[in-house]
Amino acid sequence: MSGGRGKRAHHRVRTATLVVVAFVVLLAAGAGWLWLRLNGNISTFDADGLSKNRPGAGAAGQNVLVIGSDSRSGSNKELGGGEGDVGRSDTAFLLHVYRDREHAVAVSIPRDTLVDIPPCRLPDGSWTSGRTRAMFNSAFSVGESAKGNPACTQNTVEKLTGLRVDHTVVVDFEGFSAMTSAVGGVQVCVPKDVYQGDLNPHRGSRGRLLFAKGQQNVSGQKALDYVRVRHGIGDGSDIGRIQRQQAFVAGMVKKVREQGFNPATLLPLADAATKSLTVDPGLGSADKLLSFAMSLKDIGLHDIKFITVPWRYEGDRVDIVQPDADALWASLKADRTIDGKDAGGKRQAGPAAPASSAAPGPVSGEGVSVSVANGTRVSGLAARAAAELEKHGYTVGDTGNAEVRDAGITVIEFGPGRAAEARTLARLFPGAYVHGVAANGITVTVGRDFAAAGGGTLAVPEPSAPAPSAANPGTLSAEVAATARSADDDPCANLSYG
């Protein structure tokens, strides 16, 4: 077995080397113009719109938010139909690449999900007020510009998950169509004949046949129509469409892998992709995009998973199901796969160990003042946390309710010079999210994890990572994990059409 692993490892190294050599040869042969062209294709969005109160950078994997924009501006109108130049997002998923760089999971967030949208920056530089229980896809339309508001969607995802989004990528109609053509199409499965009227129910007639029932290869406009169609299949729900979109993306990943790292294939794909992408400044050049893409080369198809955030219907909208969703975010934060395995890889030793692995012993809060807020709708939770903190010697100042009361995980915020005190305090709240802010002092916003533990006695954890529990939700329920799709699954298997 060890010999086989050694051969596979050697093959991966050799493959990576060939990719780098291919690009070097192209550049040396006078193709530097192509590199400049790729750089010139890429658009970036203004990072000034990102929240000033973001989750702290993670020590584990990376999180990439992928948004599909259905703006009808420019040539997108010919592909997507419809009217209006305002950018809208009908597709979004958060891709978590685990630290071992051998696993990844894409979590779809339904467009109709009711979420809290934090203050967002408008095109004129002013900021909106936060909104509660708003549709998720409305965040992208804040400011009503043709290119949308990816920073607002990123802020919303960070608020929803408690995870820091390392990169955001927006893909439009035209780019998606071109990318599917560049790879020669993708195999999809259609459960019944689909007509133009199914794609656009407002046309008033059935129209011509778009897809005949069965498995087929689609690219360009047909690929775009496939991932957009919702009506006429199943109950016409967005959830059913998400499942088909996940199968499509899985098929596209599989197709690219099967073709190998062939410049004849990759360069047209890179050209199509960079023309269509709007990215954060951290991915705003061809070499940055290539570097990120190369970091994913060792992830096997079976270890690329697709899942939808745990959900239920709330009238004609979608609500997130707790505690399952919080367990999902906690598992990503802890670099645990959806089946509970540790995919964090080897950790680098450093001067500051994570709060969950702090040395055991009594915690003394003598001389430290803390404010406590209730981030849930459980009555009296802040007062209970305050009483427990006082038992450990802390001076508790303000207590009350947080502005938004839907926190799944306890959050500890600390001001300048208070990092060490915050880490010590975090030992009393296993699994808490700790990050620095501009404001002075230390604030604890207790979440549903504290409520699930009974809001009772705070205890110092052992040095080893605590086992998953209601208070430290690191593993998904079997029911949620069973819904996952792998990139190597049969394109016709495990699809529910609404």
UniProtKB/TrEMBL annotation:
| Transmembrane feature ranges | 15-36
Pfam families documented for this protein: LytR_C, LytR_cpsA_psr
Low complexity composition bias: residue spans: 349-367
Ranges for domain LytR/CpsA/Psr regulator C-terminal:
368-450
The record's keywords, sorted A to Z, are:
Membrane, Transmembrane, Transmembrane helix
- Fetch the InterPro entries from UniProt: LytR/CpsA/Psr_C, LytR/CpsA/Psr_CW_biosynth, LytR_CpsA_psr
| Start and end residues of each stretch annotated as Disordered | 339-367
Cell envelope-related transcriptional attenuator domain sequence ranges: 88-257
Which family does the record claim for this protein?
Belongs to the LytR/CpsA/Psr (LCP) family.
Q: What is this protein called?
A: Transcriptional regulator
Organism, as annotated: Streptosporangium nondiastaticum
